[in-house]
# Entry
Amino acid sequence: MAKQMLTLKLPPKEATLSKVSKRLNLSSEEIDLEFGVVNIDPKHNLYAILVEEEAARRVSRAPKVKGPFSNPKIEPFGPPKKK
# Structure
């Protein structure tokens, strides 16, 4: 199943996989462990996580959580241009 991105405002001390999983009641199968908790806006303590679609629907209503947002695969358009 495709993963979806959520953003959440957290104090920096709370921005760990274990604390986010516990806070949002996510199992290790629902949250992308390799992606982790990524700080996308340090000034505003905004973090991103990837979760399974069903989990995204469930936790998107939690306080300070926004999303889900799509997470399309980014690939190059073609071969690199030669100089």
In short: The CA atoms of residues 6 and 67 lie 5 Å apart. The chain has one domain: 3-69.
